[in-house]
């Protein structure tokens, strides 16, 4: 009976060890662009718009979603991750938003081919894009609109955008981050529209 008892005890230990080693399955998230019927297209010219270069803080160059747990402390959620690099997701979402908000012929993301006939370019520098433990999202960025024909600046700004997620749940936080990118997109679209940019040459 003793060998059988030893076998049972060993089997139980293996079950306990394997149970302790189980990790939660990861959940993956994407930023979302504004809906076509809710963006409110601004009047303006049709141009080819270049998005970028975009600079992003190094602390966001990882798949885990970052939360600011203190003034100088960050936590990374191992089980809650971006489905693509956040910098790429930010660029794609901004490009989609501006394509909806402005009657541009098309928007292209940096880097683009030298043969791409750009009319205007938006250069963006993001210095913060995260949420605190209460779920409040902060996006800090400065941007500038450049006319490609003469490299003249047509407008620039530096702003901080805040969006309350309403909870500390990750789906709500990511939705709030999408709304923060929407705020930035609307400011850029309004600046382009207000500048009265002339239409580009026929393609």
Structure commentary:
This protein has 203 residues and is an alpha/beta fold. It has one domain (26-194): ABC-type transport auxiliary lipoprotein component (Rossmann fold). The protein is 30% helix and 34% strand. The chain contains three helices and eight strands. The chain has helices at residues 2-20, 86-101, 170-194; strands at 27-29, 48-55, 64-70, 73-82, 106-109, 120-132, 136-147, 152-164. Strands 1, 2, 3, 4, 5, 6, 7 and 8 form an eight-stranded mixed beta sheet that branches. A hairpin with a 2-residue loop joins strand 3 and strand 4. It is elongated, with a radius of gyration of 23 Å. The N and C termini lie far apart (88 Å). The model is unreliable at 199-203 (pLDDT under 50).
Protein topology:
Layout: H1 2-20, E1 27-29, E2 48-55, E3 64-70, E4 73-82, H2 86-101, E5 106-109, E6 120-132, E7 136-147, E8 152-164, H3 170-194
Helix pairs in contact: 2-3
Low-confidence stretches: 199-203
Strand content: 25-35%
Distance between the termini: 88 Å
- Give me the number of helical elements: 3
Shape: elongated
Structural class: alpha/beta
Characterize the biggest β-sheet.
Answer: 8 strands, mixed
SSE sequence, one letter per element: HEEEEHEEEEH
Portion in helices: 25-40%
Work out the count of structural domains.
Answer: 1
CATH superfamily: ABC-type transport auxiliary lipoprotein component
Q: Give the CATH level 1 class.
A: Alpha Beta
> C-alpha Rg, in Å?
23 Å
Q: What is the average per-residue confidence, as pLDDT, rounded to a whole number?
A: 85
- The tally of beta strands, per DSSP, is 8
CATH topology: Rossmann fold
């Amino acid at each position: 009976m003793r060998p059988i008892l030893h076998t049972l005890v060993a089997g139980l230990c293996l079950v306990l060890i394997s149970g302790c080693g189980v990790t939660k399955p990861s959940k993956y998230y994407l930023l979302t662009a504004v809906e076509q019927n809710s963006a409110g297209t601004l009047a303006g010219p049709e141009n080819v718009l270049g998005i970028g270069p975009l600079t992003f803080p190094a602390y966001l160059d990882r798949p885990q979603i970052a939360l600011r747990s203190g003034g100088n402390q960050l936590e990374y959620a191992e089980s809650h991750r971006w489905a693509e690099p956040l910098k790429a997701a930010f660029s794609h979402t901004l490009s989609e938003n501006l394509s909806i908000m402005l009657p541009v012929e098309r928007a292209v993301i940096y880097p683009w081919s030298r043969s791409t006939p750009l009319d205007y370019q938006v250069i963006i520098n993001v210095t913060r894009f995260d949420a605190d433990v209460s779920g409040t999202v902060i996006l800090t960025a400065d941007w500038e609109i450049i006319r490609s024909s003469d490299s003249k600046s047509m407008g620039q700004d530096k702003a901080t955008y805040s969006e309350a997620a309403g909870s500390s749940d990750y789906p709500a936080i990511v939705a709030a981050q999408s709304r923060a990118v929407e705020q930035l997109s609307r400011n850029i679209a309004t600046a382009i529209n207000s500048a009265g940019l002339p239409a580009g040459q026929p393609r």
